[in-house]
Each structure stands twice: as C-alpha cells, then as structure tokens.
Fold this protein.
Amino acid sequence: MDKANELKNIHAKWLAECTCELRKTATQGVTGDGNTNAQIVFIGEAPGAKEDKEGRPFIGSAGKFLAEMLESVKMKREDIYITNIVKYRPPENRDPTLKEIADCAEWLAEEIKLIDPTLIVFLGRHSMNHFFPDEKISEAHGVLLTGNHFGKARNFLPLYHPAAALYNGSLREVLKKDFKKISKILKTLK
Ligand code: URA
C-alpha cells in the first residue's frame, strides 16, 4: 500500500476510535493534511472555528499567515505536511488540556512515523512543550532541538505560533527570521 493510502487508513481508524472528550463539542475531527513524502512536518496546537467547520488544518487567519510565511521562503503548502497535537477544536479555542493532548498522541505518532520527516517544526509552545516540557518558546524558538520521539532520534525546530505573531509586530518579525532558518537547517541535516 502506498503512503497516501496508509495515511488515509490511519486517519479513518482514529476518527472512529479516538477517545478525546472534545469529540462531544467539536463538529468533526481535523486530520493532518499535505504531502506524505514531505521532509518537513509542521505541528500546530488544535483546530480553530474555520478548521472545525471545514475539516482541514490551518485554513483560518493563522493558516493564511502561515501560507504567507511559507511563500516568503519559497515553500509551498503542497511540499509540507501539517497537523495538530489535538485533532478536535477546544470550545472557545481554549488551550487543550494535557488529557486531550494525551488522547490524541498516538494518532499524531502514527502520522509522524509514517511520513518520517527530516525536520519537525513546532508551531507554538503547546506542541513543543508536549515533547520538550522544560523548554521556553521565548528561548527555544529558531533553535534546533534533537530528541528521541516517535520511535527514534529526530530533529525539531520550535517556532512561535502564527496566531500569536499575527497581531504582534515584534513576534511577527521574529517568526519571519526563524522561517528563513528552516531551509538552512534542513540542508545541514541531509
Ligand atoms: N491553529 C492551530 O494550531 N491549528 C490549526 O489547525 C488552526 C489554528
């Protein structure tokens, strides 16, 4: 079976079996989306209102800003894979709880192991802190981290979440600079 079909099966299985309590309030599960042969996987936090309605990650205002950032470094959404640590929208877009993150964790692990990217980019502190609980996003953003996650030693780059940077001019500049590091870092990893 090819990777795209394997991924479809992973999503279908977890959409049926995930025990996350947020299923009760969300419209639908928002699965990861993109290129199954991607060298880079972006991991965000949880779907927002637009994602919940349409079933695709990062298509609201944070997603549009992310698309702008990708374009600024000549990357296309079709080249990457993008997903969230939590697949269901938390009510009023509140932060996901540790239990909600834990309930969606195996789903995320199966996606990552299948795609097996060279670099994993965390969008925001929630996804970073699930794997690196002692790091602070204000210090770790733009810095390559390595760690044993998803079955082997892997490379991670934490960035500010685009929603945080969207309305904050100084974070916006930091995020732009950090985005420029992605392809440089990727080259060092090959
Ligand atoms: N923010 C996220 O972290 N994920 C989405 O899918 C949308 C907004």
In short: The helical segments are 3-17, 49-54, 61-72, 98-115, 125-131, 137-140, 162-166, 169-189. The longest strand covers residues 152-159. Residues 18 and 164 are 28 Å apart (CA to CA). The radius of gyration is 15 Å.
